[in-house]
Design a protein that fits this description.
The chain is mainly alpha-helical. The chain has seven helices and no strands.
């Protein structure tokens, strides 16, 4: 690689244009991955555990951990948190009502941080999820989101 090509590549890497296609693609990728992981690993699996608890009375660790945090109605609280992760995460992935879904997920994941600390588990992963999802409250869904598409439809009808 020539010096000029390297210099050009380096200068392009410094581009911080928030409206660029690369930035929009990065937001799409991050939304998709984070929303997908939260939905599948946390929402789906917690919902599966809750349904098994309802069907068979099998131990549901999430409800026990919520009870240990002295939340009122721990089973209902556990189902509410599960519902947020199960419903809001895929909507975040799609960029639909991104800020609202990210805010709901931020609240639930913030409690997950406290839950991990209270259970003497490493809260790093919960902190990472919370920070990334909280950033979407500020950033929105980006150019490649349903929010942008809906906003354009609304603007065209006015």
């Amino acid at each position: 690689m020539s010096t000029n090509a390297f210099k050009s590549l380096f200068i392009k890497s410094l581009d911080a244009d928030a409206g660029s296609a690369a930035t929009a693609g990065g937001l799409l990728f991050l939304r998709g991955v984070v929303g997908g992981i939260i939905f599948y690993v946390h929402g789906w699996h917690k919902l599966d555990g809750g349904i098994e608890w309802l069907r068979t009375g099998e131990r549901w660790p999430l409800a026990e951990e919520v009870a240990a945090m002295h939340f009122p109605a721990p089973v209902a609280s556990a189902f509410a948190a599960t519902a947020v992760q199960f419903l809001c995460a895929p909507l975040l992935s799609l960029g639909f009502c991104t800020r609202l879904n990210a805010a709901a997920l931020t609240a639930v994941l913030g409690v997950a941080i406290a839950q991990n600390v209270g259970a003497h588990r490493d809260p790093q992963l919960a902190v990472l999820y919370t920070v990334v999802v909280a950033a979407f409250v500020l950033l929105g869904g980006g150019q490649f989101s349903l929010d942008t598409k809906l906003n354009r439809l609304v603007q065209n009808q006015q």
